[in-house]
Amino acid sequence: MVTPSVRPITPERLADELADRIAALPGTPWLRVAVDGAPAACPGALADALCEPLRLRGRPVLRVSAGDFLRPASLRLEYGRQDPDSYYDGWLDSGGLLREVLAPLDPGGSGRVLPSLRDAASDRATRAPYTELPPGGVLLLDGALLLGRWLPFELTVHLALTPGALVRRTPPEEHWTLPAYARYDAEAEPTGSADVVVRADDPRHPALVERPG
Questions:
Q1: 62, 131 in Cβ contact below 8 A?
Q2: In sequence order, which residues have a C-beta less than 8 Å from that of residue 112 and are 6 or more positions away?
Q3: For 100-105, which contacts have Cβ atoms below 8 Å and span 24 or more sequence positions?
């Protein structure tokens, strides 16, 4: 087995290279891109950084965060506020995300997307209006634990952290989530299943994992 190489890259160059890759993708009228990673890896920051480079390449962009598609607290916290298995299996409203965001961007879909469903802090519906993503547009979805759920994406990016970096960069009050990320690595194997893997132990100095062939 050939070991993948790791290429250091600046955050700006990372955004440009990813934007080039996304803009060159063939296929459907819309492109659905997942930027996956634990909160400590800051997937939202990378998704935000991709917006302007994609627009400069003539691609309309819609930003959506999986954190705005969590299940109601009565379901999310059924087994307590710090249950890692519930966090892994039951916090994300995968059905709502599919129905309101991803399925409308299927070939032949309407392109009409709900950018947010629920405010987790208030546990209320956001009542956000639907928005139309023009043909040729790119959905940039950031979030944690997104892979291995059979959600449809044209490109997946995983921000990988070593166990030590994950512990260091996760606030102590959120350390109860760490077993969920260990389970994610073992079951979903994001570093093997994602189309693009970025080592993100230091957000100022990311590195692209380049697979042979």
A1: yes
A2: 104, 130, 131, 132
A3: 100/69, 101/64, 101/69, 101/139, 101/141, 102/32, 102/139, 102/151, 102/152, 102/153, 103/152, 105/28, 105/29, 105/30, 105/32, 105/133, 105/139
Tens digit of each residue's pLDDT (9 = 90 or more) over 165-207: 999 999 999 999 999 999 999 999 999 999 999 999 998 999 9
pLDDT in tens, 103-128: 999 999 999 999 999 999 999 999 99
Is-contact 153 33, C-beta < 8 A?
A: yes
**What amino acid occupies position 106?**
D
| Burial tier of 210 (Cβ tally within 10 Å: 0-12, 13-18, 19+) | exposed
Q: To the nearest 5 percent, what fractions of the chain are helix, strand and coil?
A: 40, 20, 40
* CA-to-CA separations, 8 to 13, 109, 168, 200, in angstroms, rounded: 10, 39, 21, 10
What does the alpha-carbon distance between residue 196 and residue 209 come to, in Å, rounded to a whole number? Answer: 7
Give the separation between CA 131 and CA 111, rounded to whole angstroms: 8
Nearest to 184 by CA among 38, 13, 77, 62: 38
